[in-house]
Design a protein that fits this description.
The chain has 368 residues and is of the alpha/beta class. It has 2 domains: 3-163 and 352-367, 3-Layer(aba) Sandwich (Rossmann fold), CATH 3.40.50; 172-347, 3-Layer(aba) Sandwich (Rossmann fold). The chain contains 15 helices and 14 strands. It has helices spanning 18-29, 64-75, 86-99, 111-119, 121-134, 146-152, 196-207, 223-235, 251-257, 275-278, 283-289, 300-309, 320-333, 336-347, 353-367; strands at residues 3-7, 33-40, 44-48, 51-57, 80-84, 103-107, 140-143, 158-160, 183-187, 213-217, 241-244, 260-263, 294-297, 312-315. The chain has an 8-stranded mixed β-sheet with strand order 3-4-2-1-5-6-7-8, with helices on both faces. A 6-stranded parallel β-sheet has the order 11-10-9-12-13-14, with helices on both faces. Helix 1 (18-29) links the parallel strand 1 and strand 2 (33-40). Helix 2 (64-75) crosses helix 3 (86-99). The longest helix has 15 residues, at 353-367.
């Protein structure tokens, strides 16, 4: 079988990047020899489920990590390169020129809005130019949702593989935890744009009326925000259960125990191109698979699923009072367990990684 090199542009191991991990496992289970190349705080070689992970230290001058990744990608003598996210798009272009091997690119994000938000207009313009030049010269593009797929289809062949959860890791029958009576959960990165401040401020209002506690699973990306969050939590006696990052395979029991999940992406610009305004978080399906209904930002696609499945509510993610009232009402209605059962039944047959992964294997087979 072919040897596949998966190239990441950001940390894979700490925490494990779910999208990269799922695609790697799918390839390995199909019989391919799979290796992951990733930045890490140290240079080392390790493995997960017989998938080799080649880590390269982030220490050194600018560009050194890119040099190390490209050098190892060439030395690995791979039959196909599977590149995740923006920088590996550039690496893939170079590898294509040097090796003539097929290049697949997995795009998780609305790149231009993301670059504009994080790095400014110049970076966004540069990203647009790179897409125009590089994307048509690759062999295939994989992405995560239909809207992004339509945008990228002008450059190349595209298949949409949504980032749905693995059923084997989110099987409620494997988890014997009993639902708590007063627990809400959030899973994901802890940033302002992902709604951390809003969540804590909401819990302050909620706890003035009900003894409900928030469990947060994820890591901070900003030390200043972390200090604020810890001080706010202590000052208002929120009793937040800070779990930090946990392994992807260990999320299910934590989610299953909670009565209600949160996803409150902030669309500050109010514009359709805002990547958070369009965001359809994987955690929506992770919550529902574990019979945990949710309150979500008012994304029309998410709202359609929650309404059809009768398994959650959408709110204005910036309106603290609206969110707090919604939480209190859902707990008082006494229908959270029923909503959780509805959610599980609605998503179990349609929204799993296993339902779509065969498409990835078919594409790789054709290219190799």
């Amino acid at each position: 079988m072919a040897k596949i090199g998966i190239i990441c542009d950001r940390e894979f191991l700490d925490p494990i990047d779910q999208r990269v991990y799922k695609s790697a496992v799918t390839m390995a289970e199909a019989g391919y020899d799979v290796e992951i190349l990733t930045p890490h705080h140290t240079t080392q070689k390790t493995s997960i489920n017989n998938i080799i992970i080649r880590c390269f230290s982030t220490k050194g001058p600018p560009g050194m990590v890119s040099f190390r990744l490209i050098k190892e990608a060439l030395n690995g003598n791979y039959d196909l390169y599977y590149c995740h996210e923006f920088d590996p798009l550039l690496y893939g272009f170079l590898l294509k020129k040097l090796t003539r091997k097929p290049i697949m690119w997995d795009c998780h994000e609305y790149l231009i809005p993301m670059k504009r938000e994080l790095q400014g207009n110049l970076a966004a313009t540069f990203a647009g130019i790179v897409l125009e030049i590089v994307a048509p010269r690759l062999d295939y593009i994989i992405t995560v949702d239909n809207d992004l797929g339509r945008q990228l289809s002008k450059y190349n062949k595209v298949t949409v593989l949504p980032n749905y959860p693995n059923l084997k890791y989110f099987d409620s029958s494997l988890n014997k935890n009993i639902k708590s009576k007063n627990e809400i959960i959030y899973v994901g990165s802890l940033t302002r744009k992902r709604g951390l401040k809003i969540m804590l401020q909401t819990m302050k209002l909620v706890r003035e009326e009900k003894d409900i506690k928030l469990t947060i699973v994820g890591g901070f990306e900003d030390s200043e925000l972390e200090r604020w969050a810890m001080e706010y939590d202590k000052k208002h006696n929120l009793c937040t259960n800070w779990k930090g990052w946990v392994e992807y395979t260990q999320l299910a029991p934590l989610i299953s125990k909670a009565n209600l999940g949160l996803s409150l992406l902030q669309n500050d610009t109010g514009k359709i191109e805002d990547r958070y305004g369009r965001g359809f978080p994987t955690k929506v399906f992770e919550y529902l698979m574990m019979k945990t209904p949710l309150i979500c930002h008012n994304n029309p696609d998410v709202e359609k699923i929650l309404n059809l499945g009768k398994c959650g509510k959408c709110v204005d993610p910036s309106d603290i009072e609206e969110i707090a009232n919604c939480i209190i009402q859902l707990f008082e209605d006494g229908k959270l367990e029923e909503m959780g059962e509805n959610g599980r039944k609605f998503v179990i047959d349609k929204f799993t990684w296993e339902r779509n992964e065969t498409e990835l294997v078919k594409i790789i087979k054709k290219l190799t």
